[in-house]
Design goal:
This protein is an alpha+beta fold. The protein binds zinc ion (2 copies). This is AT1G76590 protein.
């Protein structure tokens, strides 16, 4: 009886950005801003769901929901939610 609720949890559909987020490459130099400091790609945009990007690229994602990846290993993701609301 107790197992029923847990099984239901596995049937929840993941949000559409989850797989692209997990597959993106983080902590590599940004191809556009490689010459700058702080050009490590540790941001991911939930609205664009494409590739990881750096803090300079963040300007292209105004009013998007952006996650900052603090660190990642093959098994764990440490995320900080940074829903940017620049106007
Ligand atoms: Zn960049
Ligand atoms: Zn975006």
């Amino acid at each position: 009886m107790m197992m029923r609720a847990e099984e239901d949890n596995y049937n929840l559909n993941p949000p559409p950005w989850l797989i692209p987020m997990l597959r993106a490459n983080y902590f590599i130099p940004c191809s556009i801003h490689a010459a700058s400091n702080k050009s490590e790609c540790n941001m991911f945009c939930l609205d664009c769901s494409s590739e990881a990007f750096c803090s300079y690229c963040l300007l292209n994602h105004r009013n998007h929901r952006v996650l900052q990846v603090l660190s990642s290993t093959s098994n764990h993701f440490f995320l900080s939610y940074q829903f940017t609301q620049q106007s």
